Amino acid sequence: MALADVLSSSVTKPDKLRALGIVALNGMFDEMDAVGVLRQAASEILPGDLAIVSSFGADSAVLLHIVAQVDPSLPVYFLETGKHFRETLDYVETLKRHLGLRNVIALRPDAGDVARFDPNGELWETDPDSCCHIRKTEPLDAAVAQYGGWVTGRKRFQTKERGVLPHFELTSDDRIKVNPLAYFSDADVNQYKRDHGLPEHPLFESGYKSIGCAPCTTTVAEGEDPRAGRWRGLNKKECGIHFDFNGEIAKPVLGAEHNLFKDGGFIADPFHAWEEGSDPAKARYTHVPVKTFLANREAFLDNPHPLGLLVVPGDKVEDVVEDLGRFASIAISFPAFTDGRGYSSARLLGERYGFEGEVRAIGDVLTDQIPLMRRCGINAFVVTHQPTRKALLDGALAEVAIFYQPVGKTEVPVGTRPYLRRAR
Q: Which residues participate in [4Fe-4S] cluster binding (predicted)?
């Protein structure tokens, strides 16, 4: 069977041959330009079975210009969430006229879901994951179910999670996701728009570098990541349609408690506790105990989903030092106020092993511990104790200014002499 036949066959269950075909496809077309990638996908791999998905945001004109070159009649789906800027809706019409796109389709959320879960239109304030699920993921899921593959405008430079993005992916529902702009840099995008005289999104010059729904999009300062204005202040980087590398659709976080304190506020926590018996190959957004990780190391390393690590008293972080880069978050357990072994684990992670990701404290996390935890490199806290929550929100934590045991390179211990004691 030819490679194109393997990739274009419609299947409803995981197919190892299809997965192998994706690997081969990326090898064959890794150096191909964006127009070539899309033309190959539309004419050879998935002829008549490919949809385009566009946000009509700040960079969307580039992908849509390429679509117009390949086939302006390709179906282009736009998620009309009901929360867009007026300027974005106007931009949809501008690009349709400018590029000659003949098949732009607006996808709207189910009216029943909106009435049930978001009757006042304020769900984005309390549970943005669920808001995205209702207004984006569910409508798109139904639409792409008609196709063998779909095209995105994602690029490697946009976020750390997208840093290994290939031209072709096999999603968890066994569809092909095509990313023609995967290797474009921010400079490439802007140069392409200039070279082809593409109209800018009306909000781009006002500092909106990545544009989604109006309530969840802010301007971006000079030098910030282009997507820094999306869900600013929340532990959220994706709307759900691109939730992880495999493109698996995100599930809603309905009624989630906001117990994770990070970056100055309490937010919904995407991680959950590890459950015994879970499949290491399919686990996602869970803190895996050190012993469980070591016992199933290869399966966890092959797992493409975001994972965390759970460190409890008695665990040796040096046992997993080679794999620290695998984890999006490391949770350090403080089972009791009197057990301080977690402080040492946190310092080892940051000072000796250079871990720069999220290090969170869980367990008995109380007001007077948090300044000490922060000194040791812990930057997130799971807090249910109400007085501690209030102290965090009010900025009323006790300061620690005198150090007998310094941390890092900047603290000076009390009693330090300006000279070394000489041996007799």
A: 131-132, 213, 216
| Catalytically annotated residue among 62, 64, 239, 361 | 239
**Are the C-beta atoms of 80 and 52 separated by less than 8 Å?**
no
- The label of the residue with tokens 């057990």 reads 339
pLDDT in tens, 174-216: 788 898 988 888 889 889 999 999 999 999 888 888 888 988 8
All domains in the chain, ordered by first residue: 3-216 (3.40.50.620), 260-394 (3.20.20.70)
Annotated ligand binding at 376? The verdict is no
Q: Is 376 a catalytic residue?
A: no
| SS3 sequence of the chain | CCHHHHHHCCCCCCCHHHHHHHHHHHHHHCCCCHHHHHHHHHHHHCCCCEEEEECCCCCHHHHHHHHHHHCCCCCEEEECCCCECHHHHHHHHHHHHHHCCCCEEEECCCHHHHHHHCCCCCHHHHCHHHHHHHHHHHHHHHHHCCCCEEECCCCCCCCHHHCCCCCEEECCCCCEEECCCCCCCHHHHHHHHHHCCCCCCCCHHHCCCCCCEHHHECCCCCCCCCCCCECCCCCCCCCCCCCCCCCCCCCCCCCCCCCEEECCEEECCCCEECCCCCCCCCCCCEEEEHHHHHHCHHHHHHCCCCCEEEECCCCCHHHHHHHHHHCCEEEEEECCCCCCHHHHHHHHHHHHCCCCCEEEEEECCCCCCHHHHHHCCCCEEECCCHHHHHHHHHCCCCCCCCECCCCCCCCCECCCCCCCCCCC
